[in-house]
Each structure stands twice: as structure tokens, then as C-alpha cells.
Design brief:
With 261 residues, this protein is mainly beta. It has one helix spanning 148-155, and strands at residues 8-9, 21-30, 36-44, 49-56, 63-65, 74-77, 83-87, 90-96, 98-106, 115-125, 128-139, 159-160, 168-175, 180-187, 196-200, 206-208, 212-216, 219-228, 243-247, 252-256, 259-260.
């Protein structure tokens, strides 16, 4: 699609190819601590992509429902490092061809079977965007061995702040007409090439606008406006919940929390 408009979102009445994306559950066995390792594997048709948890200016954020699952105490998802795309002049963040999304489950009742059931709502895009819903239902295999695909997906996660050599992360807050502007100043080595930072509020009652990014020497400066997800005013932001991801050519960095700056 050529021009400055965001990709068109197709409705249910639009004619689109079948089977643009397929989902299956991968088994990764049980850890020494008793947690189950699994993964959602999404396979996309050639040329199509889907989005990261924070999809960028024109993307569709994925949403999960785990209704029907059994024996799940805690569940955590590891997001592999995504790519930054330019789509019709808009910056989006996601994956193409295939996404393996590792899931670690701490069972509510140790030693008992774990059933992973639910659905994933997502957007898949090429020249147009198609909202999609994938259902899954699988009893995890406690006897399964390590799955190389899951291991590789976990290994491709962003570095932690410590692993990436982050020396400091401070955030300045400034009220705006609709919310609060966050300016994060991160002292860290370059992640390579053109760096793109993403600020996430870490609070389901807030959402973040697009993040602008620039670098001055050893300091990366990222700025975004946080706004309330529903009507009302925003009077405070918990810096400890802010999550800043830096995506570079060489690697990515995941930073949780920042001090007053």
C-alpha cells in the first residue's frame, strides 16, 4: 500500500485468504522447580506479520483469554525480541513468518495435569490488517523433553538492564493537557544502529502514546505521553511500574522501573 494512511482494517464481510495464521501448542516439559514450559507457535502466511505486546503507532495489540484452563496458579509469557517495521509511514513492532511465544505455568496443585485452553485475539497485517481470533486447547505433557524451538525463543528475549550494561535510568514527569509526559534518560551503551525505545505504563488503567527516541553520547532519551484508558484525569504515575524496551540493530534491552530524574 502506497501513501500516508495506516493499513486498512478489513471487516468480517471483506474477502480475505483463509488460514492466514495457524496456532499450535508446543510442549517443553517440567522444570526442576515444578513449573510447566509450553509455547504458542503462530505460523503466518508468507508476507504477513503480527504484533508485539506494544504494537506501535498503527498495530493491533494481542489479547489473551485463558478461560477453560485447569490447574494454573501463575502464568508468565516471554516475548522474543520483535522487529520494527515501517508500514505506510507508520512505525509498527512485531513479527513475520512465525512467532513462538514461551509460556511458563506454575500449577495450582503441584504434580497434577495442566490444561492450557483459551483464545488469542490478534491482528495480522500485510497491505491490509485482518483481526483474527485463535482458539487452543491442550493438556501439557509433563514427560516432554526440552524443546529446542522454545529454548531458542527464550534465548531471543531482550537483555536485562544488567546484561546490557545499563548504568542508570531516570524519569522526569510533566503534566500535559490529557495526561503526563514521561521523559526517560537511560545511561547505557548503544544497542546498535537506529535505536527505538518503547515506554509502557505497566498499569492496565493507562495507555502510552508513541515514544520518541534520540541519543546524546552514552544517554538514550525516550519520551512518551501516558493517558488514562477511560475517562478521567491522570494525576500520578508509578515510576517503578514503567517498562522501557530499547530495540537496536544488535540486541534489545528490557528495563523495569526508573528513579526520579
Amino acid at each position: 500500500m502506497i501513501g500516508s494512511l495506516a493499513p486498512q482494517t478489513l471487516t468480517a464481510q471483506s474477502v480475505v485468504p483463509n488460514d492466514l495464521v495457524q496456532v499450535e501448542i508446543l510442549d517443553g516439559g517440567v522444570t526442576a522447580s515444578g513449573s510447566y514450559i509450553g509455547a504458542l507457535r503462530l505460523t503466518l502466511q508468507e508476507g504477513w506479520k503480527t504484533y508485539w505486546r506494544s504494537p506501535g503507532e498503527a498495530g493491533i495489540p494481542p489479547q489473551f483469554t485463558w478461560r477453560g484452563s485447569r490447574n494454573i496458579g501463575e502464568l508468565s509469557i516471554t516475548w522474543p525480541t520483535p522487529q520494527v517495521f515501517s508500514t505506510s509511514g507508520y512505525q509498527t513492532i512485531g513479527y513475520h513468518d512465525q512467532l513462538i511465544l514461551p509460556i511458563e505455568i506454575t500449577p495450582e496443585r503441584p504434580g497434577r495435569p495442566v490444561r492450557l485452553k483459551g483464545r488469542m485475539e490478534l491482528g495480522i497485517c500485510k497491505d491490509v490488517c485482518v483481526p483474527s481470533e485463535l482458539s487452543f486447547d491442550h493438556q501439557l505433557d509433563a514427560q516432554a523433553g526440552r524443546n529446542p524451538a522454545i529454548v531458542a525463543a527464550i534465548a531471543s528475549r531482550p537483555y536485562s538492564a544488567r546484561e546490557a550494561g545499563v548504568r542508570a535510568a531516570t524519569c522526569r514527569l510533566k503534566p500535559t493537557q490529557y495526561g503526563i509526559e514521561v521523559e526517560a534518560r537511560i545511561t547505557m551503551p548503544s544497542a546498535g544502529g537506529k535505536e527505538v525505545a518503547v515506554i509502557e505504563p505497566g498499569d492496565p488503567h493507562l495507555y502510552a502514546g508513541a515514544t520518541s527516541t534520540n541519543r546524546s553520547g552514552q544517554t538514550l532519551i525516550a519520551t512518551a505521553e501516558l493517558m488514562p484508558a477511560t475517562s478521567g484525569s491522570l494525576t500520578s504515575v508509578d515510576r517503578s511500574k514503567l517498562r522501557i524496551t530499547v530495540l537496536g540493530q544488535d540486541h534489545a534491552v528490557d528495563i523495569t522501573g526508573c528513579s526520579a530524574g
